[in-house]
Write a structure and sequence with these properties.
By secondary structure, the protein is of the alpha+beta class. The protein has 7 helices and 8 strands. Strands 1-4-5 form a 3-stranded antiparallel sheet. Strands 2-6-3 form a 3-stranded mixed sheet, with no helix packed on it. It is elongated and about 125 Å long.
Length: 214
């Protein structure tokens, strides 16, 4: 057998359709590359869009930073005296205890002692007034629903006439400064009364409640 029969020509092995597709693909790639090279406007538009996006992101980050800084400065002003105010509350409590320790008869029969007590009461009121000017507020939760964020339950009072977990007594007043609790109010809460549960009636207004016997 001759060599001509053993090895066919390369051209005869190629598929004409495959060759045509490869040529078309190569031409298309060259056209795209040429279009990119000769069309700087599109390149500028793409660059401009990227710069615009980057600018908007930077502006948003700066705005968030400005807001955080403003809040931190505001909080620093409001809460700067928190430690001092907490210490002054202890002093105020001691003034109140000193007044409560004196029986009413003692002040009625002794004018000097009565004047002293009035002076201590004045100091107590003035101290609270000045603390209030700096954002410290007194909590008066008697009759309110117990709130663990602002109240500390010290004991329970059996009472079936008021809703369960109602503040019945205030052992020690609580105070807040801004949105923070300086000291929770120490309270006694009711037990055994009706529980407050959300209303399921679709005709009831928002926030309505129903009494449910415990």
């Amino acid at each position: 057998m001759s060599d001509q029969n053993k090895t066919p020509h390369t051209e005869e092995q190629l598929n004409p359709e495959v060759v045509a597709e490869e040529v078309a693909f190569a031409n298309e790639a060259e056209q795209v590359e040429a279009a990119v090279e000769v069309d700087p406007i599109e390149a500028l538009r793409a660059e401009n869009a990227a710069l615009k996006d980057r600018t908007l992101r930077t502006m948003a980050e700066m705005e968030n930073l400005r807001r955080r800084t403003e809040k931190e400065v505001k909080d620093a002003k409001v809460y700067a005296i928190a430690g001092f105010a907490r210490d002054m509350l202890v002093v105020n409590d001691n003034l109140g205890r000193a007044i409560d320790a004196l029986p009413d008869e003692a002040t009625q029969n002794d004018e000097n002692l009565k004047a002293l007590v009035e002076g201590v009461e004045l100091v107590e009121r003035e101290m609270l007034n000045h603390l209030e000017k700096h954002g410290v507020k007194r909590l008066s939760p008697e009759g309110e629903k117990f709130n663990p964020h602002f109240h500390q339950a010290m004991f329970e009072v059996p009472n079936t006439e008021v809703p369960n977990n109602t503040v019945m007594n205030v052992v020690q007043a609580g105070y807040v400064i801004g949105e923070r609790v300086l000291r929770p109010a120490m309270v006694g809460i009711s037990k055994g009364g009706p529980k407050i549960v959300p209303v399921t009636d679709k005709n009831a207004g928002p926030g309505s409640t129903l009494d449910k016997e415990a």
